[in-house]
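Page 42, continued from yesterday. The earlier attempt failed because a stray header line got pasted into the input along with the sequence. Redoing it now with the clean sequence only.
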Amino acid sequence: MVRGALFKENCQMPIRPSDCIEVKQIAGKGRGVFATEFIPAGTVFERVPVIVMPAEDILDSTDNCVLANYVFDWGRGTMALALGFGSLYNHSYHPNARYDDKGRQTKIFTALRDIEAGEEITVNYNGHEDDQSPVGFDVLEAANTKSTRPDGPEVASPSEDRDLVSSVAD
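This time it went through. Structure tokens are written below.
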């Protein structure tokens, strides 16, 4: 069987970009994914294809040290780079979303609770929203992060204790 045929049999295509999320810059934290509109609990708001590769190609290479910060453990000695915004969600021990593997080369992101427009969407990198295992870095929770818009004064997002953010595109 040709590789292309195998891919077609196991892939959930077509996958389209989501209109309800965007990437923004967060001062002191980097990039994050945010809701552009209200997302009800239980909603699958993003489906992304992944590129699966041998873990040693990522973890044992000094050339790919940055890429190692954006991959998921995919099992059986492999790692996956999620396309779309899939590798840009920040970690939280109190996430408002989760990710699941769907088929052999797709990851889906689902709201665990209602997510307000302007709210950062976070996932638990440990794979389950209740897993409190260390992740190997200091965790900056969404409510503790501040930023400013480059085009003007600080502007609060919907919740008073939420991040002040600026768009990556600005």
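Notes: The first strand starts at residue 21 and ends at 26.
Reminder to self: strip header lines before submitting.
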